[in-house]
Amino acid sequence: MTYPGFFITLEGGDGSGKSTQAALLAEALHTAGRTVVCTREPGGTAVGVEIRNIVLHHRGDISPRAEALLYAADRAHHVETVVRPALERGEVVIQDRYIDSSLAYQGAGRVLEVEHVRAVSEWATDGLLPDATVLLDLDPTAARRRLTRARAEYDRLEAEATAFHDRVRSAYLALAATEPTRFIVVDATLPVSAIASEIRRRVTALLAERA
Fold it and tell me: Which parts of the sequence belong to the Thymidylate kinase-like domain (predicted)?
């Protein structure tokens, strides 16, 4: 730790409820007196919005390596201009997706060498890692049903075949197994309020340890 703030990331497959839980956690911490920055990848900056439009909505083909590099470019700018300054001010950063997303989606999903993807992302962020990562675990079939009800059109990654999303889920669980002290794995089939309560309990304990 080289900063007074606290960095929390939320991970999981599309449709797992990350955005909802990020907002609920931010509200709870704000009520508890914390200064909170709630952001996302890709798209947490003006530059990131443009990159997000390319990686998620471009209608032509994007090679897997190019896709991984686009995410890394977004991450480099986002960390430099939003995340690290907030952490240095002592704030809590709650972020929807970070390096683990690239390891799961571009590494396992696109079948790239995971360690290469990790090296690029860690270089892009100058080694900044989360203090805690909430993994909302959900079967891809259940996630697809949620997305179908919520929207009429999928983005590029959501539209991938079930086998792709199965690889992504397996990769996330493997990452969590290798770093159990960082990951908070939560069953995303639970009621929204139960998930929020468990995340809040675990995060509050971690913040108390840091105090």
Answer: 10-199
Query: Which domains can be identified in the chain, with CATH numbers?
Result: 6-210 (3.40.50.300)
Q: Say what angle helices 18-31 and 192-210 make with each other, to 10 degrees.
A: 50
Q: For residue 132, what are the β-bridge partners? A: 8
Residue 91 DSSP class: P
Cis upstream peptide for 42 (omega within 30°): yes
Q: Is 19 annotated as a binding residue?
A: yes
Q: Distances in Å between the alpha carbon of 211 and those of 94, 116, 198?
A: 18, 35, 20
Known binding residue 16? Answer is: yes
The DSSP symbol for 8 reads: E
- 74 among annotated binding-site residues: no
- Annotated binding-site residue? 13: yes
Q: In the block, which residue shows the tokens 């999928």?
A: 154
- Dihedral of CA atoms 19, 20, 25, 30 in degrees, nearest 10, equals 90
Q: pTM for this structure? A: 0.93
Q: Which residue has the tokens 């060498």?
A: 113
What pLDDT, on a 0 to 100 scale, did the predictor assign at position 150?
58
* Three-class DSSP category at 92: strand
The token pair at 43 is: 């798209």
Q: Is 17 annotated as a binding residue?
A: yes
CA distance 165 to 68: 17
